[in-house]
Structures are given as structure tokens and as C-alpha cells.
Amino acid sequence: MSNKTYIVSSKTKEEAKIVIRIFLSKASDFDLESKIFKCLGGQGIGPKEIEVTPVYRVEECIDGRALTYLELRDSEIGTRLMQMICQMNYDENLKELVSDRTSIQSRDFIEDRQKGWFWRYKEEVQKTLEGSSQLRLRPRGRIIQEYFTKLMQHEDELISDYRELFSIYDPAKRPHDVVFSHNDFQENNVLINNTEQLKLTLIDFEYSGPNYRGYDIASFMNEQFMDYIIKEAPFFKIMPEEYCEYLRDSVKASSIFEEHIESYLRTYASLINTPNPEEFIKNERAIFKDQVYRCILMSHIQWVFWCFIMMPHERLNTEEGANKCLEFHMEYAYQRMQLYFKVRNIILPSLAHRLPDPNEEGSD
């Protein structure tokens, strides 16, 4: 939804292919993305860059395909992804690329009044959405229009809820809680090689930047229950009941979620060469789970408002424009917002009221 890609093959050598990617997103920084792409391509984590301009990029064509949401649930693939995410999160070269960015993207959502997605919705979209007569003519459009009109009548409560999610984080005390994050980790952004089992490649870094270390894991958890390979409108399917059951199960020590937490922390322990990995993992586990849960809730809200600023909202008062907005963006925003309130009731009771202070006696 944020770019278009074309695979170009040679007339004389069919196997010789390149990818041309056209940048379309209204919500990303392509200058930074280009630097990130080149860095990860050089490390073999992403495709290699061949040529880049402000409008498009020519890339190496990976002999592979996008993962499916069901493959995200595979234990072996999940373990490998946890390792890749952790290595990317703490990569020094990537950290250097964003070293001039002191803000954290999940905070920017509501604290950056110029570029933050919430405030862009308020400035660019809200009045048009609430006043669209074309939406009122469509039963589904009217339902979604009324839902978000009512939601924004309680915007102070929504902002307060969102701020509360990261209020206990203090990067000054725990700097490793803020990392380089992909920020859009989902099935279409991970390629699996057609010939080499478990050789995975990450793509699409246009939203990457500093964020809380639980964010990519939270996205990974969310996306296991969202299918985007749907050929008819709205072109996606969310499985809320399965997802809620998964979150309820995640508190159990034997859950697949616990295995993923273990894989990530074990990789991190190896990266920092901690002398006692088992003790380190034991001390970090509860904190990290709390961070992932908070990021699950934050990400649902963020992608709701991403939908609104990405859709052609300036055409909402035309028949064609209203249909286009309803076709994917508005329906996706509506379902993600409903999902937020469902999982909020599951997650909030388990959240910590404060994080341990590493300077306190007895803390690690």
C-alpha cells in the first residue's frame, strides 16, 4: 500500500531479474529509508541496492516469495525471525544512521503536532471524514463514519490511554529499551528463499527508525492473525477470536509466545556477551513481555490513523473517492480499532505499574 513494485526480466536471460520500486507513501521518510536499505543490503539482511532516485529504486530481485500469515506461526521460522529482529534492533551501523533522531516513533504519533499520524488525521482528514455526504449514502460508510466521529469526541481519553502505555519508559535509565526498529513487520515484508530453507530477507524499511524494542515483536504477534492475500475487497482478513485466544494463552510458560521471548533474549544476551545468559534472561523476561504487550496496543492505534492519512481522503465527497476509501483503508482502520478495544481488556490487567530501576539495589 505504500509503494508499487515491478519485476523486470531480461529478454535474453529470463533468470536475470531486477525490482523497480516506486515510492508512494505519504507517511514515511524515503531519504532515511534509502540509507537503511543500503546498509541492510550490504549485510545480507535485505536486498542489495542497484540504483536509487527520490522517486524510485532499482533493487536486487530475491529468488523467493512473501511469507504467509500461517508461516509466521511456524516455530522454526518464528525462532529465526526473533534472531533477525534482535540483530537488527541492536545493529550499531543502523543505530548510527538514526543517531540524529532523538524522538521515538511511537511517541511522535501524538507528540509531533506536525508529522505525527494522530495530528495529521486531525488536521488533514477529520473534518472531511465526518462531513462526507457520500459516506452517509453507503450503509457501511455511515457505520464507520459514525464510529470514528464518536471515538474522536473522546480524543482526550484516547490520547491519555496512549500516553499511559509508554509513561513508565525512561530511556535515560534503560537506554537499551530504545532500538532501531523496522516498524512495519508483517507477512509481506519478509521474503523466504525458494531454494534455501529458512533463508529469510527483510524488505520495506520506509517506516524504520528509533522505537521501543518490543515493537517489532508486537507487530509479529499481531500479523499472525491478519491475512492480506485476499483478492476481493476489503483485501484483508483479521481473525479476532483466534488472536484474542492467543493473547490469553501468552501468559502461560509453555506458550509459543514464551518461546519467541526466549529466542529474542537469548540472541540479545549473545550480542552483549553477558557472562550469565540464563540469569540475564530470567531478569529481563517479565520486563520484555510487558514492553511487547504495551507495543501491541500502541501499534493497533497507530495503524488506524495511518489508514486515514494514506487513503485518498481529499476525494471523500465524490462517489468514486468514497468507494475507494471504503474499499480498504476505512474498513481496515475500523477493524483495527475494534481489535484494540478487544485486546485492551486482555492486556491491561497484566501490565506492570513501574519498571525496575537498574540503579536500585538488587536490580540488574
From TrEMBL:
Pfam families membership: Choline_kinase (PF01633)
InterPro entries per the UniProt record, alphabetical: Kinase-like_dom_sf (IPR011009)
Signal sequence extent: none
GO BP term, pick one: phosphatidylethanolamine biosynthetic process
Molecular-function annotations in GO: choline kinase activity; ethanolamine kinase activity
Record's GO cellular component terms: cytoplasm
Superkingdom of origin: Eukaryota
Family stated for the protein in its record: Belongs to the choline/ethanolamine kinase family.
Name this protein carries in UniProt: Choline kinase
